[in-house]
Amino acid sequence: MFSFPGNMSDQIKMFYYALWIAHPVLQTAIALVMVRRKQYVQFKYFFAYIVSQIVMFAILFPVRYDYSASFYLSWISTTISVVLGFKVIHEAFLDAFRPFHTLRDLGTVLFKWAGLVMLLVAGVVSLSTNSSDTVPWVEAILTAQRCVRIIQVGMVLFLLFFAHYLGVSRRQHSFGIALGFGVFALVELSLVASFVGEHVSTRSMDLVNMLAYDCTLLIWLGYTLAKIQARETPGTLLKPQRWEQGLTDIHHPLPADSLIPMFEGMVDRALSRTQGGSAAKAMPENVSPTAKAAAAHAAGGGYGSTRSTGIAPEGKSS
Hints:
Blueprint: H1 10-36, H2 44-60, H3 67-96, H4 101-128, H5 136-166, H6 173-196, H7 202-225, H8 238-251, H9 259-281, H10 289-299, H11 305-309
Helix pairs in contact: 1-2, 1-7, 2-3, 3-4, 3-5, 3-6, 4-5, 5-6, 6-7, 9-10
């Protein structure tokens, strides 16, 4: 959430408004490029997020001097940004795991649980707060916003470390979307920590936050204008394929009467007979047939030894 300029000098106030007005300008450019290149079809939540920010600026800017209206409208804007920001990160995650359907489904389940935990944490914090300066619902929105920021930073770190395994190029749009959110989230969380520790003032925090968001919009504009680099083919991604196959086997185990275990058993028995015969042949010629049969029986696990020698197993008559 961006606060409104208060007791600032004229130069700082002009700089503040320049940074703020740059937001809808860059967002409009991003939206136009996405419409022209039909990227809104693939990243519909990101497109909705950009459009919502433009609409909220058009509503907030004219009422910036009305404290009551601007207060409630700004928090409504923050709530919308938090919800859509979470959905955008999920959208980038699905694009990264597009070739791996089982891993993508698992990630969707994890994101749903992360959203539920985020709401629970926000509710608990809002109910347990004793601050007279902040109302509970505002505290809940702030907590949810910081949870989303942490998830956004985690998503960037995940893509940085696992992009090679997933075949994700750093020039893909999903990587650029996550990178922009991650950079802004990291700056905002650092500013919050510095503000709580009384290392930065509110004015400096607002200006740096606005500047960081402008940089994020420039990152997104650059990625929307850039050509998509083809990702690696799934055939060369051995590790995620093993993860995918492992999860598939867990979700869809082979039936008991499947032919695959039967064929595996036949191969094992054939190998056992071969090993047993090889062990018997490797013995010296002066060894008795009974000893050879015993060696074959020990090496092959008992397969085929009874029929070849006519000696019955222990406890049975031949």
